[in-house]
Amino acid sequence: MPSEYFARNCWLGVSQPRLVDVAAGRELPADRFMWGNDYPHDEDTYPFTRETLRIVFEGYSQSDLDAILSGNAAKLYGFDMAKLAPLAAQYGPTVAEIAEPFTTMPESPNQALRFAKAPR
User: Fold this and answer.
1) CA separation for the pair 48, 59 (Å, rounded)
2) DSSP 8-state assignment for residue 58
3) Phi-psi region for residue 40, left (φ > 0), alpha (ψ -120 to 50) or beta?
4) Cα(102)–Cα(70) distance, integer angstroms
5) Contact 54, 98 (CB under 8 A)
6) Are the C-beta atoms of 31 and 75 separated by less than 8 Å?
7) Is the dihedral of CA 20, 30, 33, 66 positive or negative?
8) How far apart are CA 49 and CA 26, in angstroms?
9) What is the pLDDT of residues 38-48, one digit of tens each?
10) 3-state secondary structure of 37
């Protein structure tokens, strides 16, 4: 079946997640949804990436966040998590940061953050 083929062969990676992306991620097998970001562009979530992730991943368990933020990509691409741990701790975002509830909009939020916090 197509769904079985997809479950074996496809992953969803998002770098500028919106609520609709996160909703789609919940429909996938837990190990097929990944977040990643490698560029600080104005149209992206930077410099409010942590705040944006806290909004869109609200309600996710810490184990799901761990998989989405690092574990799924590490497994797929064969990353050595022990070697990457010092960099992950230095640059984040960490699961603990993203699991923390979003409470205060920063001064001068960018479009990505304003859009993430838009009424649902």
Assistant:
1) 19
2) T
3) beta
4) 21
5) yes
6) yes
7) positive
8) 20
9) 666 666 888 89
10) coil
